[in-house]
Every structure is written in C-alpha cells, then in structure tokens.
Amino acid sequence: MGLVNAKEMLAKAKAGHYAVGHFNLNNMESVRAFLLAAEETRSPIILGVSGGTAKYMGGYKTIAHMVEDFMEFLKITVPVALHVDHGTYEEALAAIEGGFSSIMFDGSKYGIEENVEKTKYIVSLCKEKGITVEAEVGAIGGEEDGRMAMGECADPNECAAIAALGIDMLAAGIGNIHGKYPADWKGLNFDVLAAIQDKTDGIPLVLHGGSGIPDDMIKQAIDLGVCKINVNTECQIAFTEATRKYIEEGKDLKGKGFTPRALLAPGLEATKQKCIEKMALFGSLGKA
Ligand code: 13P
Fold first, then answer.
1. Each residue of 8-23: b (16+ CB within 10 Å) or e?
2. pLDDT for the residue numbered 143
3. Total tally of structural domains belonging to the chain
4. Can you give the residue range of the structural domain that contains 176?
5. Of the candidates 86, 84, 123, 118, the residue with the CA atom closest to the CA atom of residue 100
6. Which atom of ligand 1 approaches the CA of 177 most closely?
7. CB of residue 108 inside a 6 A radius of ligand 1
8. Residue 194 domain-assigned (yes or no)
9. pTM of this prediction?
C-alpha cells in the first residue's frame, strides 16, 4: 500500500475513541523505526516532517520517495500518511508539489483574516489532489525549528471560523508546549478544549507537544475529541540516550562497532520502542 491521506484513519480514531500518533522524522533511522513500529503493532501512523527536517533530508520530494520506497521494501501494509508539520505557506506548497499526502499549514503567525485567506487557498489546492489539511489556531508554546511561542489558548470562535474552511483537522493551543514541559506548567486547559470541540462540529482535533504530557491528561484529551497526537522530543531523547549508552559502554571500540549502522542501531530500536509505547497510550494498537 502506498501513502494515504489522514482522513479515514482520523475518522476511525474519532469514532473508536483513540488517537493516531504523529511522529516526527529526523533522519533515515526514524523512517525505518516508525514504519516498523506501525507494522509490527498493526497501528495506523502519521509521519511528520518539519521545515528543518525537510532541509536536512533533501527536500519534500526526496522524503516522499524515500518513505514510499521504504514502505515497499519493508512490505508495510498499515495506513501511513506523510504530513507536513507546521508548514509555512511556501513549505506547504512545496510539499504538495513533492508528493506528500497530508499538509499542516501553520498560519498562526498571521492575523485571523490572512490565516483564513491562505488556509482557503491551500485547502482548494489540496482538495483537488486528495491531500488532507491541518490548520492551527492559537500558537502552541515552546520552540520548534527555531520558532518560539508561548503556550496560549485558542479562541473557540476563531477555531470555528478556520474549521469551517473545509480543513480536515484542527490544531488548537490549549496550553500545550513543544519540547520539555517546565516544572511549573499548569497542564492542558480542558475547558477550552471542550469549548473548541463544541464550536467546531466534531472536527478531528490535534494535540501538539505530545512529549511529557501525563498519561491521564492524554486520555482526557482523547475523550474530548483529540484524535491526532504529535510526538517528537521523547523519541529524539530515546534515540540520543541509547546512542550515548552505546558509546559510553565502549561498544564503538570493539570489532566493527564503529560502523555508522552499528552505532545507530540502538537509537533506532529505542525510537521504535518509544513509538510503540506512545501508540499503546493513544489506543491505536491493532487499529490498522
Ligand atoms: P514534542 O516535541 O513536544 O513531542 O512536540 C511535537 C510536535 O508537536 C510536532 O508538531
């Protein structure tokens, strides 16, 4: 099976009261780790690509080809969507051209009018090509690819205006933050989440900053309509910790332990296990 868009997998998740994990690609090892995790657990998956990753991995077209060819090589049979994460207007257009099956256009830096105009245009292009669209209202806190934002709560009325533009999923800030949560973090604002879902006619909601949110909050968010959860930092940390352990144990100094494939193997396996752990929490295992 080739890439699919995110529509059907999110509709099923919403109906089945679970969430599909969106896992950010960072390198070739992460492509392999996430595809294997999804296939092994019969879980649908969304692979996310930020602008930084796109630059690092050779652009959207290269990544789309790499993921599709990997899927064929690994005989992946579960639904896989390849999604732009926090795309600027230009990045979203490049990814549509490059063969992605799903796009996030992050117009949160624009005023609501300009966000609406640009989102409309992206939606019209994507509809023609069967590509799903995620839009964002209310900047999500923390740092991602050099962009900083404080965790703020989205205005449910603005969410309703954006949701009505024909998008397939909506990311709305509810106090969530990318990266590590500070010790004094106040948690997710479930009142705002409930109000957003109420005003947006059951549209699939997306929770960014999925790393480090306590399990009970994740479950409550799913109960209130979240059916896509984005995770990056926890997988990155799992990769790096496993790689550091390999070197600290001196394994790179034994035999052929210095080869890049041997060096990166523990990180790949740790990424895969972290992905499976998150999918189990989100309830998507066996749902492919
Ligand atoms: P974390 O890095 O906090 O898991 O957030 C990932 C994310 O939201 C990507 O859009």
1. ebbebbbeeebbbbbb
2. 61
3. 1
4. 7-282
5. 84
6. 3
7. no
8. yes
9. 0.95
